[in-house]
Structures
1.
Amino acid sequence: MVGYKRERVVNTAVLPARRGTKRRYSMRRYWLEILLIFAIALMLVFCFTAGAETIPTKNAVRAIIGEASNQGYHGMLAIACGIRNRGTLKGVYGLRAKHVDSQPKWVWTQARKAWLESEHNRIHDGYMWENITAFGKPSWYNDVREVYRYKDHVFFVEKEDN
């Protein structure tokens, strides 16, 4: 018959017949391939859902000090919440700020306390912020809505499309 494909049975797995090959599929290999596909899918899910839990405390504290060392504890808590809501330190200037290294020990203690508290006490849901007083409105200002304001920092979230 033309176009008819035979099927072969190997350890109860039905696999298409292969011409010109002597390689045999076993149930073990079949299940290993299924397991590999499942593991890759699971890794992709975890990669895209990883958030603030993956930010090292040392880096988060440094970023908080760089952003809000002159804002007091409440300002540091607001920045810590913003970082947690963002889930990454990408785009956070404070991480690279040079003045961080010259801050006294009590500022570091406050920043660490703010970071730890922000895990359970989210005072806002903004994940973007700017010091509008010092730097003016950012280019993306029209695409966001304000959700929280403390001293110099204004926190935003993206506007929802209607």
2.
Amino acid sequence: MTTAEQRRIWREKTKSYYDENQKQIRINRLKNKLQKGPQTENIRLSSIEKYGLQEYAEENGWDVSSITVNRMDSEVSRGVNAQITQRVEKRLEEYDKEIKRLMGEKAKQLQNFVQNRPLKEGDLTLQDTIERIGHIPIYKETTRENYQKRLENLFKHILKDKGDNVVGTFNDYKAVIKKISNAKQFTKGKGKGKEYADLSHFYNMPVTLYNNVLEFRSGLSYQAYQAYKDAYVEERNKGVARLKQVKYATEYPDIQELHLVRRLYATHAPASIWHLVSALYTLTPAVRNDYGCVHLITKTNKVKNNGRNNYYNVQKGEFILNSYKTDKRYGTLTYQFDKRLVNVINLWLEKTKNKKYLIARNNYLKTASEEELPADCESKGHNSGMSKVVSDTFSFFMKHEGDEKNIGIREIRIIWVNYLEVVKDVKERTRLAKLMGHSLEMATNVYLRKTEGKVKESSKLIKEHPDYGEKGYIHDKKKIMKGIDTRFD
């Protein structure tokens, strides 16, 4: 056999072997390259994916994380793309028709605007408008609810209008403004009712609707809009001047009087709800009505901080405030309570036997029998019922005959802000303001008031009434646990 013949036979055998084993041969070649590592070889990720060598490649130092294992078949992909393209083209045709229609409508509206007529005849009913207010995205839910109630009150009680055509009613702006200016507060019984202290929110109603409800904006004339806006600005300026006058006309007690109230409860009603509340609002910067939704963290009740609820750690004497009015701005606030306050809380928990909550409904409501929190703790994050408890606690001693208002949470916070003015260190003032849930600027610009000079003498009285755990306190724990017969029982 000639050499040429041998070479031909060898080539045929080689080709036959390669045809039968070409996949394995390619795999072996790829493995050899992969063994050398990514520093020496340049291999396409598609090749590694094709032969299923992802694990082998990772073992040899290759990064194959970008490989998509499950790929859509190219023919299926092309079919889906064709369907999408068809739908998009159809939608674009619909958009073109809508754009042409709107352009024609806008041309008519422009003509009406030039002639000072409503852009479009509106037919919104009162219920339609109330529903649209509920979908204004720039307002919070509570703001939308307030606007809805306000609009309903305006039409039913002030304008005495059925609300069949809200836009049409507001277009008669001269009559509407006159009725608002003479408005009286609605009363269910007989009588005319008192005058509204501030009418600006009624004038602002059509301005808000004009700015946020497209159908209303299309129907209200610009002349009417401007008239309501001017009336709103004028009334608002009057309100600012009135509030400024009231702000500086009223004198507020000194913070020492709050401490006096606390020590009076410590003497006459120790471990009562009033004793606890007076301590919570005097021995640490006064928060709002957030103490009515506080979960206890104890050795036996090891709850985890979920970032939403408020907590008090009994062992550490630490209060964690997650949910409050300005939590989005300041985040979670943590308070290390004063030792005296920790003593009062421990005494309170020992007497009430509370296991899960700092203040439960059955601690201040006779109708509640179990240790539970009110429903608004879950829905709103705070306990509106606490406002009355706080007001009752401090007003009992501090409200004088003839006073129109009780001493509530707002008044207590104003008293605390007045105290901040006494603190010389600006950093400390800023820290205390933050613990109250607002900035130092907000504290001084909004809350700061005049204080009564005569209350400085109360400091002498405070020393006569030490609190639980302090030297000279008159009751021992055994006597308190047994109960003290006083007029507060």
